[in-house]
Amino acid sequence: MKHLLSPLILKVGLVCLLSGCNPNSNVQSATNESHSHDTETETSQVGENPSGPIVCVTKQLYSYDEMLEDLEILQQKYPQCVKYELKAETYQGRQIPLVTFGNANAKRHVMVMSAIHAREYMSAQLVMSMLEHYASNYDNGKYKETTLKNIFDNVCFIIVPMANPDGVEIAQKGEKGALTADVKQWVRQNTKEGTKYDQIKSNARGVDLNRNFRNGFGKDRRYKPTKNYSHHPGPEPYSEIESVFLLEVSQMHDYALFLNYHTSGNLVYYGCKNAQQSVNNAALKLSNIIKRHTGSPLYGPDTSPACGSWADEVEVLYKRPSATIELGSKNPVPIAEFNGLYKKNLWIWADIALAVMNSQF
Ligand SMILES: [Zn+2]
User: Fold this and answer.
1) Would you say residue 213 lies in a domain?
2) 7 C-alpha to center of ligand 1: Å?
3) Range of 135's domain?
Protein backbone atom coordinates (compact mmCIF):
# COMPACT_ATOMS: atom_id res chain seq x y z
CA MET A 1 0.00 0.00 0.00
CA LYS A 2 1.28 3.38 -0.90
CA HIS A 3 1.57 6.04 1.76
CA LEU A 4 0.98 9.48 0.41
CA LEU A 5 2.52 12.40 2.21
CA SER A 6 -0.22 14.20 4.07
CA PRO A 7 -0.56 17.91 3.45
CA LEU A 8 -1.10 18.35 7.17
CA ILE A 9 2.31 16.91 7.94
CA LEU A 10 3.96 19.34 5.59
CA LYS A 11 2.05 22.22 7.05
CA VAL A 12 2.64 21.17 10.62
CA GLY A 13 6.34 20.78 9.97
CA LEU A 14 6.54 24.10 8.21
CA VAL A 15 4.53 25.97 10.80
CA CYS A 16 6.57 24.35 13.53
CA LEU A 17 9.75 25.63 11.95
CA LEU A 18 8.33 29.07 11.33
CA SER A 19 6.78 29.51 14.71
CA GLY A 20 9.37 27.71 16.80
CA CYS A 21 6.49 25.52 17.87
CA ASN A 22 4.94 28.34 19.80
CA PRO A 23 1.30 27.45 20.13
CA ASN A 24 0.40 31.08 20.67
CA SER A 25 1.93 32.07 17.39
CA ASN A 26 -0.29 33.92 14.99
CA VAL A 27 0.57 31.59 12.17
CA GLN A 28 -2.65 30.18 10.85
CA SER A 29 -2.26 26.68 9.69
CA ALA A 30 -3.44 23.28 8.89
CA THR A 31 -6.74 23.33 7.18
CA ASN A 32 -6.31 19.62 7.02
CA GLU A 33 -9.01 19.15 4.50
CA SER A 34 -7.40 16.40 2.55
CA HIS A 35 -5.83 13.93 4.87
CA SER A 36 -4.62 11.02 2.91
CA HIS A 37 -5.11 7.63 4.38
CA ASP A 38 -3.36 4.36 4.24
CA THR A 39 -5.71 2.03 2.55
CA GLU A 40 -7.59 2.21 -0.65
CA THR A 41 -10.96 1.48 0.85
CA GLU A 42 -10.86 3.78 3.84
CA THR A 43 -11.59 7.43 3.80
CA SER A 44 -11.57 9.98 6.51
CA GLN A 45 -12.61 13.55 6.69
CA VAL A 46 -11.40 15.81 9.38
CA GLY A 47 -12.29 19.28 10.42
CA GLU A 48 -10.16 22.35 10.73
CA ASN A 49 -7.27 22.75 13.07
CA PRO A 50 -7.34 26.53 13.07
CA SER A 51 -4.54 27.60 15.34
CA GLY A 52 -1.73 25.34 14.39
CA PRO A 53 0.39 22.69 16.02
CA ILE A 54 1.04 22.55 19.73
CA VAL A 55 3.27 19.51 19.87
CA CYS A 56 6.60 20.20 18.17
CA VAL A 57 7.43 17.57 15.60
CA THR A 58 10.69 18.99 14.26
CA LYS A 59 12.77 18.80 17.41
CA GLN A 60 14.99 15.81 18.15
CA LEU A 61 14.74 16.09 21.93
CA TYR A 62 11.08 16.33 22.93
CA SER A 63 11.46 16.86 26.67
CA TYR A 64 9.41 16.05 29.73
CA ASP A 65 8.77 19.76 30.40
CA GLU A 66 7.59 20.36 26.84
CA MET A 67 5.20 17.46 27.15
CA LEU A 68 3.75 18.94 30.34
CA GLU A 69 3.35 22.36 28.70
CA ASP A 70 1.68 20.76 25.69
CA LEU A 71 -0.71 18.80 27.88
CA GLU A 72 -1.72 21.96 29.69
CA ILE A 73 -2.39 23.75 26.40
CA LEU A 74 -4.24 20.78 24.92
CA GLN A 75 -6.44 20.49 28.00
CA GLN A 76 -7.26 24.21 27.93
CA LYS A 77 -7.91 24.23 24.22
CA TYR A 78 -9.86 20.99 24.01
CA PRO A 79 -11.57 20.61 27.41
CA GLN A 80 -14.36 18.60 25.80
CA CYS A 81 -12.02 15.68 25.14
CA VAL A 82 -8.60 16.09 26.81
CA LYS A 83 -7.92 15.88 30.53
CA TYR A 84 -4.72 15.13 32.33
CA GLU A 85 -3.60 14.61 35.88
CA LEU A 86 -0.15 14.42 37.42
CA LYS A 87 -0.03 11.23 39.36
CA ALA A 88 2.94 9.25 40.67
CA GLU A 89 6.20 10.99 41.53
CA THR A 90 9.45 9.41 40.37
CA TYR A 91 12.74 8.99 42.22
CA GLN A 92 13.90 12.30 40.73
CA GLY A 93 10.68 14.04 41.73
CA ARG A 94 9.01 14.19 38.33
CA GLN A 95 5.30 13.57 38.21
CA ILE A 96 4.00 11.17 35.60
CA PRO A 97 1.01 12.50 33.66
CA LEU A 98 -2.06 10.43 32.95
CA VAL A 99 -4.19 11.58 30.03
CA THR A 100 -7.84 10.84 29.34
CA PHE A 101 -8.90 11.31 25.74
CA GLY A 102 -12.57 11.11 24.82
CA ASN A 103 -15.49 10.45 27.11
CA ALA A 104 -14.22 9.48 30.55
CA ASN A 105 -17.53 7.71 31.19
CA ALA A 106 -17.39 5.66 28.01
CA LYS A 107 -18.36 2.01 28.22
CA ARG A 108 -15.08 0.83 26.70
CA HIS A 109 -11.48 1.85 27.32
CA VAL A 110 -8.10 1.41 25.65
CA MET A 111 -4.83 1.89 27.54
CA VAL A 112 -1.90 3.46 25.69
CA MET A 113 1.59 3.53 27.14
CA SER A 114 4.75 5.00 25.68
CA ALA A 115 8.34 5.90 26.56
CA ILE A 116 8.76 3.27 29.27
CA HIS A 117 12.27 2.96 27.85
CA ALA A 118 14.35 6.10 28.26
CA ARG A 119 16.00 6.43 24.87
CA GLU A 120 12.65 5.77 23.15
CA TYR A 121 11.32 9.26 23.82
CA MET A 122 10.17 9.73 20.24
CA SER A 123 7.30 7.42 21.12
CA ALA A 124 6.08 10.10 23.55
CA GLN A 125 6.36 12.76 20.85
CA LEU A 126 4.35 10.61 18.44
CA VAL A 127 1.65 9.78 20.97
CA MET A 128 1.38 13.45 21.97
CA SER A 129 1.09 14.61 18.37
CA MET A 130 -1.52 11.94 17.69
CA LEU A 131 -3.41 13.16 20.74
CA GLU A 132 -3.33 16.69 19.32
CA HIS A 133 -4.55 15.45 15.97
CA TYR A 134 -7.52 13.64 17.46
CA ALA A 135 -8.33 16.45 19.89
CA SER A 136 -8.26 19.09 17.16
CA ASN A 137 -10.57 17.00 14.98
CA TYR A 138 -12.79 15.68 17.75
CA ASP A 139 -15.75 17.94 17.00
CA ASN A 140 -15.74 17.73 13.21
CA GLY A 141 -13.56 14.85 12.07
CA LYS A 142 -14.67 11.51 10.72
CA TYR A 143 -13.15 8.11 10.24
CA LYS A 144 -14.79 5.58 7.92
CA GLU A 145 -17.98 7.66 7.90
CA THR A 146 -18.20 7.67 11.70
CA THR A 147 -17.57 10.91 13.53
CA LEU A 148 -14.53 10.95 15.79
CA LYS A 149 -16.78 12.32 18.51
CA ASN A 150 -19.00 9.28 18.26
CA ILE A 151 -16.03 6.93 18.26
CA PHE A 152 -14.29 8.44 21.26
CA ASP A 153 -17.53 9.05 23.16
CA ASN A 154 -17.87 5.29 23.09
CA VAL A 155 -14.24 4.28 23.49
CA CYS A 156 -12.09 6.33 25.85
CA PHE A 157 -8.29 6.29 25.57
CA ILE A 158 -6.34 6.32 28.83
CA ILE A 159 -2.81 7.39 27.92
CA VAL A 160 0.51 7.39 29.76
CA PRO A 161 2.57 9.31 27.19
CA MET A 162 5.87 9.15 29.10
CA ALA A 163 6.05 6.31 31.60
CA ASN A 164 9.74 6.89 32.37
CA PRO A 165 10.38 10.66 32.56
CA ASP A 166 13.59 10.35 34.64
CA GLY A 167 15.10 8.00 32.08
CA VAL A 168 14.00 10.19 29.17
CA GLU A 169 15.68 13.24 30.71
CA ILE A 170 18.94 11.30 31.17
CA ALA A 171 18.77 9.90 27.63
CA GLN A 172 18.35 13.44 26.31
CA LYS A 173 20.71 15.43 28.56
CA GLY A 174 23.07 13.01 30.27
CA GLU A 175 23.94 13.91 33.85
CA LYS A 176 22.18 17.27 33.44
CA GLY A 177 18.97 15.28 33.16
CA ALA A 178 19.68 13.67 36.54
CA LEU A 179 18.60 15.69 39.57
CA THR A 180 20.37 13.98 42.45
CA ALA A 181 24.11 13.49 43.06
CA ASP A 182 23.92 9.69 43.10
CA VAL A 183 22.21 9.52 39.72
CA LYS A 184 24.57 12.11 38.19
CA GLN A 185 27.49 10.00 39.42
CA TRP A 186 25.95 6.86 37.94
CA VAL A 187 25.49 8.53 34.54
CA ARG A 188 29.11 9.80 34.62
CA GLN A 189 30.36 6.33 35.54
CA ASN A 190 28.55 4.70 32.63
CA THR A 191 29.89 7.31 30.23
CA LYS A 192 33.41 6.66 31.53
CA GLU A 193 32.93 2.96 30.99
CA GLY A 194 31.93 3.58 27.40
CA THR A 195 28.14 3.53 27.32
CA LYS A 196 26.76 6.82 26.12
CA TYR A 197 23.84 8.22 28.07
CA ASP A 198 21.71 8.39 24.94
CA GLN A 199 21.50 4.59 25.00
CA ILE A 200 19.91 4.30 28.44
CA LYS A 201 16.64 2.36 28.63
CA SER A 202 16.27 2.16 32.41
CA ASN A 203 14.90 4.61 34.96
CA ALA A 204 17.10 6.75 37.22
CA ARG A 205 17.56 3.83 39.61
CA GLY A 206 19.07 1.67 36.88
CA VAL A 207 16.01 -0.56 36.56
CA ASP A 208 14.67 -1.53 33.15
CA LEU A 209 11.00 -0.82 33.84
CA ASN A 210 9.89 -3.05 31.00
CA ARG A 211 11.45 -5.98 32.87
CA ASN A 212 10.02 -5.01 36.27
CA PHE A 213 6.68 -6.83 35.98
CA ARG A 214 5.74 -10.21 37.41
CA ASN A 215 5.09 -12.40 34.38
CA GLY A 216 8.51 -13.71 33.36
CA PHE A 217 10.39 -11.56 35.87
CA GLY A 218 14.15 -12.23 35.72
CA LYS A 219 13.81 -14.51 32.68
CA ASP A 220 15.18 -12.10 30.09
CA ARG A 221 18.10 -13.68 28.25
CA ARG A 222 20.02 -10.41 28.56
CA TYR A 223 19.36 -10.26 32.31
CA LYS A 224 21.69 -7.96 34.29
CA PRO A 225 21.96 -8.66 38.02
CA THR A 226 22.73 -5.11 39.16
CA LYS A 227 21.65 -1.59 38.18
CA ASN A 228 22.32 -1.01 34.53
CA TYR A 229 21.40 1.13 31.54
CA SER A 230 19.21 -1.77 30.36
CA HIS A 231 17.93 -5.26 31.19
CA HIS A 232 18.24 -5.08 34.96
CA PRO A 233 14.75 -6.04 36.18
CA GLY A 234 15.18 -4.64 39.70
CA PRO A 235 15.19 -6.56 43.00
CA GLU A 236 11.61 -7.78 42.61
CA PRO A 237 8.53 -7.18 40.46
CA TYR A 238 7.00 -3.76 41.02
CA SER A 239 10.02 -2.44 42.92
CA GLU A 240 9.68 0.81 40.94
CA ILE A 241 7.24 3.68 41.33
CA GLU A 242 6.66 3.84 37.59
CA SER A 243 5.71 0.16 37.37
CA VAL A 244 3.31 0.43 40.31
CA PHE A 245 1.78 3.47 38.63
CA LEU A 246 1.17 1.55 35.41
CA LEU A 247 -0.45 -1.25 37.41
CA GLU A 248 -2.73 1.28 39.11
CA VAL A 249 -3.73 2.76 35.76
CA SER A 250 -4.39 -0.72 34.39
CA GLN A 251 -6.73 -1.38 37.32
CA MET A 252 -8.83 1.73 36.67
CA HIS A 253 -10.91 0.13 33.92
CA ASP A 254 -11.64 -3.17 32.28
CA TYR A 255 -9.61 -2.33 29.17
CA ALA A 256 -10.55 -3.76 25.82
CA LEU A 257 -6.90 -3.84 24.80
CA PHE A 258 -3.46 -2.37 25.39
CA LEU A 259 -1.23 -0.42 22.99
CA ASN A 260 2.44 0.03 23.83
CA TYR A 261 4.75 2.35 21.92
CA HIS A 262 8.48 1.65 21.78
CA THR A 263 11.39 2.26 19.42
CA SER A 264 12.92 0.81 17.27
CA GLY A 265 12.63 -1.85 14.55
CA ASN A 266 9.54 -0.85 12.53
CA LEU A 267 7.74 -3.98 13.67
CA VAL A 268 4.96 -5.11 15.98
CA TYR A 269 5.09 -7.63 18.81
CA TYR A 270 1.87 -9.22 19.90
CA GLY A 271 0.72 -11.91 22.32
CA CYS A 272 2.61 -13.72 25.00
CA LYS A 273 3.82 -17.31 25.18
CA ASN A 274 2.00 -18.10 28.43
CA ALA A 275 -1.18 -16.16 27.64
CA GLN A 276 -4.41 -17.94 26.71
CA GLN A 277 -4.78 -18.87 23.06
CA SER A 278 -7.87 -16.68 22.75
CA VAL A 279 -5.88 -13.68 24.01
CA ASN A 280 -3.09 -14.34 21.54
CA ASN A 281 -5.65 -14.70 18.74
CA ALA A 282 -7.14 -11.33 19.68
CA ALA A 283 -3.66 -9.81 19.84
CA LEU A 284 -3.00 -11.03 16.31
CA LYS A 285 -6.27 -9.49 15.16
CA LEU A 286 -5.26 -6.21 16.81
CA SER A 287 -1.81 -6.33 15.23
CA ASN A 288 -3.26 -6.97 11.80
CA ILE A 289 -5.19 -3.70 12.10
CA ILE A 290 -1.91 -1.96 12.88
CA LYS A 291 -0.17 -3.73 10.01
CA ARG A 292 -2.75 -2.43 7.56
CA HIS A 293 -1.54 1.08 8.40
CA THR A 294 2.18 0.62 8.92
CA GLY A 295 2.99 -2.44 6.83
CA SER A 296 5.21 -3.58 9.72
CA PRO A 297 6.01 -7.28 10.14
CA LEU A 298 4.35 -9.00 13.10
CA TYR A 299 6.17 -11.05 15.72
CA GLY A 300 3.95 -13.36 17.74
CA PRO A 301 4.07 -15.11 21.11
CA ASP A 302 6.40 -17.88 19.92
CA THR A 303 9.19 -15.42 19.14
CA SER A 304 9.73 -14.24 22.71
CA PRO A 305 8.99 -15.94 26.04
CA ALA A 306 7.63 -13.80 28.88
CA CYS A 307 10.41 -11.62 30.27
CA GLY A 308 8.71 -9.30 32.75
CA SER A 309 7.51 -6.76 30.19
CA TRP A 310 4.33 -4.73 30.45
CA ALA A 311 2.81 -6.54 27.47
CA ASP A 312 3.57 -9.92 29.08
CA GLU A 313 1.96 -8.72 32.29
CA VAL A 314 -1.35 -7.38 31.02
CA GLU A 315 -2.06 -10.24 28.65
CA VAL A 316 -1.86 -12.76 31.46
CA LEU A 317 -3.23 -10.57 34.26
CA TYR A 318 -6.25 -9.22 32.41
CA LYS A 319 -6.60 -11.74 29.58
CA ARG A 320 -6.79 -8.86 27.13
CA PRO A 321 -4.82 -8.42 23.90
CA SER A 322 -1.79 -6.18 23.66
CA ALA A 323 0.34 -4.93 20.80
CA THR A 324 3.77 -3.36 21.05
CA ILE A 325 4.56 -0.98 18.23
CA GLU A 326 8.28 -0.53 17.63
CA LEU A 327 8.85 2.72 15.74
CA GLY A 328 11.80 3.81 13.65
CA SER A 329 15.05 2.41 12.32
CA LYS A 330 17.39 2.92 15.29
CA ASN A 331 17.69 4.33 18.82
CA PRO A 332 17.25 7.16 19.41
CA VAL A 333 15.07 7.54 16.32
CA PRO A 334 16.28 10.48 14.18
CA ILE A 335 13.69 13.26 13.97
CA ALA A 336 13.90 13.02 10.17
CA GLU A 337 11.85 9.82 10.49
CA PHE A 338 9.06 11.48 12.45
CA ASN A 339 6.78 12.56 9.63
CA GLY A 340 6.82 9.16 8.00
CA LEU A 341 6.04 7.44 11.29
CA TYR A 342 3.28 9.91 12.10
CA LYS A 343 1.66 9.47 8.72
CA LYS A 344 1.61 5.68 8.97
CA ASN A 345 0.46 5.54 12.57
CA LEU A 346 -2.00 8.44 12.64
CA TRP A 347 -5.27 6.62 12.02
CA ILE A 348 -4.53 3.51 14.03
CA TRP A 349 -6.30 4.86 17.13
CA ALA A 350 -9.50 5.59 15.22
CA ASP A 351 -9.40 2.24 13.46
CA ILE A 352 -8.82 0.32 16.68
CA ALA A 353 -11.39 2.36 18.62
CA LEU A 354 -13.94 1.70 15.91
CA ALA A 355 -13.21 -2.03 16.16
CA VAL A 356 -13.69 -1.85 19.93
CA MET A 357 -16.88 0.15 19.48
CA ASN A 358 -18.16 -2.51 17.11
CA SER A 359 -17.46 -5.20 19.71
CA GLN A 360 -14.61 -6.77 17.77
CA PHE A 361 -12.57 -6.72 21.00
ZN1 LIG B 1 11.48 -0.35 24.38
Assistant:
1) no
2) 30
3) 15-168+240-357
What separation in Å is there between the alpha carbon of 262 and the centre of ligand 1?
4
**Spacing, Cα 208 to ligand 1 middle (Å):** 9
In the reported structure, the alpha carbon of residue 140 is separated from the centroid of ligand 1 by a whole-number distance in angstroms of 35
Q: Is residue 195 part of a domain?
A: no
Lowest mean pLDDT among 32-36, 114-118, 134-138, 343-347: 32-36
Type and span of the H or E element at 269: strand 267-270
**Residue 38 carries which side chain, given as an amino acid letter?**
D
Tell me the CA–centroid distance for residue 27 and ligand 1, in Å.
36
Any domain includes 39: yes
Q: Report the half-sphere exposure of 131 (CA within 13 A, side-chain side).
A: 37
Rounded distance, CA 335 to CA 355, Å?
31
What are the residues facing 9 on neighbouring strands?
Answer: none
User: What CATH number is attached to the domain comprising 39?
Assistant: 3.40.630.10
pLDDT digits (tens, 9 = 90+) for 16-59: 444 345 433 333 333 333 333 333 334 444 544 444 689 999 99
Q: Does the residue 133 lie in any domain?
A: yes
